Task: structure prediction
Amino acid sequence: MQRLNIDLGERSYDILIGSGLRAQVGEFLKSVLKPSRIVIITHPSINSLYGEEVADGFIAQGWTTDIIEVPEGESSKNLGQAEKLYDRLLELNCDRKSVLVALGGGVIGDLVGFVAATYQRGIPFVQVPTTLLSQVDSSVGGKTAVNHPKGKNMIGAFYQPRLVVADLETLRTLPQKEFRAGLAEVVKYGVIADENFFEFLETRYEKILNLDSECLSHIIETSCSIKARVVEKDERESHYRMILNFGHTFGHAIESLTEYSRFIHGEAVSMGMVRAAQLSHSVGKCSEETPNRLEALLKNLGLPVDMPELDSSAVLESLYHDKKTMDRKIKFILVNDIGSIEIVDQVSEVEILKVL
Ligand code: NAD
Ligand code: GLY
Result:
C-alpha cells in the first residue's frame, strides 16, 4: 500500500492507494476519527459490487453503519438530491460526529462532499473513489459541488475529506470507456508537471490499458502526488491551482456545446488538451513536437483527439463563460514543454479560432 499525505495544516489527510483496501477502510479510519455512526452513500450498482465489504469493515469497528443509494449519473449532482440526503441524515439522527463515506466516482464524491460540507455546518467525510478519474483527481483536493440548471459545479464549497482510500481492484469492474476517460487526467499531470511521467505513459500505454497492477499503482500515486503538491500551494485556486485545468477550458466548452451527452468529461479533456497544446505552439510557446507527442499518446490510450463539428464562434462564446474567465479575459493553461506550463490570459481571438 502507498500512503501519501496532503499537507494542509489542520485539514491535512492521507491518501491510501493499494489493491483490496475496500474492506479495510474502517481500520484505517479508526486512527483518524471516532465516528458516532457511519453513513455510506453510493449508487445501487456500486453498492451491489462493493457496499457490503466496505460496510462490514465499519461494523467490525463496532460502528453503526447505514447505506444510502442515489441514482447514477451527473443528474444526481443537484440540490434536490442533496436535500433528499439531508432528510435521510436527519431521519438517521446523524450528528456532528457522524461520518459520511462517498463510495463511487466523481459524481458521488462531489455530491457527498457538498452534503458533508453543509449538513450541520460541516461533518467529516471520507472518499472511497472507484473510478480512475476519481482516484487521480476528484477525490483529492476538496472541491465539492452540485450543478445548477445554468451551469456545472456552480454551487459548492472547498471542503477537504478526512481520508481517501483508493482500491485499485475496483477499477477491474469499471467500463473501459470510463477507465480511458480517467487516463486523460493522468496524461494531464505529465504535461503540467513531470516529463519523466509523460515518457512512462508513452512507453507503458499497453500495460496500462491491460490494467497491469504495478503500472496502475504508479500512475495513481504519481497523479495524486502531483495534485497534492499543487493543492498544498493554492488550496482555494487563487491562481496556481488553475494549472490543473490544462485542456479543461476547451474541454468544458466541448462538453457544454454537446449538452454533456456526447462525450464524457475525460474525452472532452483529451480533445481540449490537444487544442491547448496546438494553441501553445501557435502562439510560440512550444515546438510542434509537443502537440504531436500529446496527440500520439492520447490516441494510443484510445482517447478522442479531433474536434467535433461545432460552430467556432459558439465555442469562443462558451470560453467567455468559463469559470476562470474574468473581465472577458479567457485564461488558458499553455505548455512551454512537456512538464512545464504557464497561465496566460492574453491570447487573441484570431489565435484561438485557428485551433478550432
Ligand atoms: P461517475 O461518478 O459518474 O462514474 C462513472 C460511471 O461509472 C457511473 O455510472 C458509475 O456508477 C460507474 N462506476 C463507478 N465506479 C465503478 C466501478 N468500480 N465499477 C463499475 N462501475 C463503476 O464519473 P466520474 O468520471 O468518476 O466523475 C465525474 C464527475 O466528477 C463529474 O461530475 C465532474 O464534475 C466531477 N469532477 C470533480 C472534480 C473535483 O475536483 N471535485 C474533478 C474532476 C471531475
Ligand atoms: N480538478 C481540478 C481541481 O481539483 O482543481
Notes: The mean pLDDT is 97. The CA atoms of residues 150 and 179 lie 28 Å apart. The longest helix spans residues 213-233.
